Amino acid sequence: MSGFTVRTADQLPSLLQGFRKETGLTQSEVALRLGVTQQTYSALERNAENIGAARLLKLLGILGVEIVLNKPVPLHPAPNQTDTDQPSW
């Protein structure tokens, strides 16, 4: 896997599972490193949209994944705030 654009939380479960499998780790191994039971980790992986930010960042670190925040370039440039004679569309 390489770069992915995540726009909704419901994309996380399949991505986390894919990253875990790509690293060759079992749920039990990840759970041990995360400090939870395998059952708890399994539930986290299935319902990743409910995971807290701190735990998600720790999990991503275990999986060797980083988050890069990127503000997309707008399709249309913002109107010039000083040019009031021109329409904003």
What is the name of the CATH superfamily of the domain at 13-62? lambda repressor-like DNA-binding domains
CATH-derived architecture of the domain at 13-62: Orthogonal Bundle
Question: Under CATH, the topology of the domain at 13-62 is which?
Answer: 434 Repressor (Amino-terminal Domain)
Query: Helicity range of the residues?
Result: 40-55%
What is the level 1 CATH name of the domain at 13-62?
A: Mainly Alpha
Mean pLDDT: 88
Low-confidence stretches: none
- Number of strand segments: 0
Short description:
The protein has four helices and no strands. With 89 residues, the protein is mainly alpha-helical. The protein has a domain at 13-62: 434 Repressor (Amino-terminal Domain), CATH 1.10.260.
Describe this structure in words.
The chain has helices at 12-23, 27-34, 38-46, 53-62. By secondary structure, it is mostly helical. It has a domain at 13-62: lambda repressor-like DNA-binding domains (434 Repressor (Amino-terminal Domain), Orthogonal Bundle), CATH 1.10.260. The longest helix has 12 residues, at 12-23. It is elongated. The model has no long low-confidence stretch (mean pLDDT 88).
